[in-house]
Design a protein that fits this description.
Length: 245
């Protein structure tokens, strides 16, 4: 981990922030991206105060130019990029009959197109240096269907398929790029704040209150994937509360 340059999207809260803290504490140079400037600034200061290395830049993953800009910042500051953790996401779940079509489109833009934009930004550098590690946050909703998660789950199924094909093509092309897809279950973060449909919000809040675990648990498995030898690819990890059925 020491001195690895790691871009983290969705670093302003939850899983992204917890992962930034852990990886920086292990010696990584973390590059933090998300929309909320105040949160990124505070986290970078916290990491530096603890002796770690962190820089940040505001990032809306739906905009290709902003993904390109954070990759440029990382490269110009540290000379290379070792890992990108494509973690930014929202979960405004609802039954389809609620017709929350704005939410549907926003999930496609952030959870799918955000991943595409991040990969498009970093892939040329990874191919040129013949190494790199793409890690993405899918969800257990990307492994099986859940009512009220048709669109959210669909975006996370996409991430699974896309990451597996990136892994296969990278192996076939000999670029030494590793991939890891993380499938979290109930993790207590700000994610539930993105739900706008009252019935779904209440149901999810009750579930998370009962079983949710802290986001550092996901940080641990991200670190595990990175810390394997370069010839070893941990492609998929499902992580959730022991008590969640
Ligand atoms: P949080 O809401 O705490 O974090 C989401 C992060 O994504 C924030 O940092 C947010 O920052 C960022 N984000 C949202 N939209 C954008 C955007 N357009 N551009 C850049 N950043 C954006 O929730 P989590 O930590 O839980 O979520 C992280 C990932 O984990 C998501 O992909 C989520 O789907 C996934 N996940 C979470 C689970 C859970 O139970 N918590 C379960 C399964 C998967 P900002 O608003 O500042 O831009």
């Amino acid at each position: 981990m020491k001195d690895k340059v790691i871009i983290i999207t969705g670093a302003s809260s939850g899983i992204g922030a917890a992962t930034a803290r852990l990886l920086a504490s292990k010696g990584a140079k973390v590059v933090l991206g998300a929309r909320r400037e105040d949160k990124l600034k505070a986290l970078a200061e916290e990491i530096r105060a603890a002796g770690g290395e962190a820089i940040w830049q505001t990032l809306d993953v739906t905009k290709q130019a902003e993904n390109d800009a954070i990759v440029k910042l990382a490269t110009e500051t540290y000379g290379r990029i070792d890992v990108i953790f494509l973690n930014a996401g929202i979960m405004p779940s609802s039954p389809l009959s609620a017709l929350k079509t704005d939410d549907w489109h926003e999930m496609v833009d952030i959870n799918i197109k955000g991943v595409l934009n991040g990969v498009a930004a970093v892939l040329p550098a990874f191919v040129a240096q013949k190494s790199g590690h793409v890690i993405a946050t899918s969800s257990v909703a990307g492994l099986k269907a859940y009512p009220a998660a048709a669109v959210y789950g669909g975006t996370k199924f996409f991430v699974r398929d896309f990451m597996e094909i990136l892994r296969m093509e990278s192996a076939m092309e000999g670029t030494n790029i590793r991939t890891a897809t993380i499938y979290p279950a109930a993790i207590n973060t700000e994610l539930l704040h993105t739900i706008s449909e009252p019935g779904t919000a209440a149901g999810m809040a009750a579930l998370y209150e009962q079983v949710g675990i802290t986001p550092d648990r996901i940080a641990n498995v991200v670190a595990f994937a990175i810390e394997q030898p370069a010839d070893t690819n941990v492609s998929e990890l499902t992580v959730g509360p022991t008590v969640q059925a």
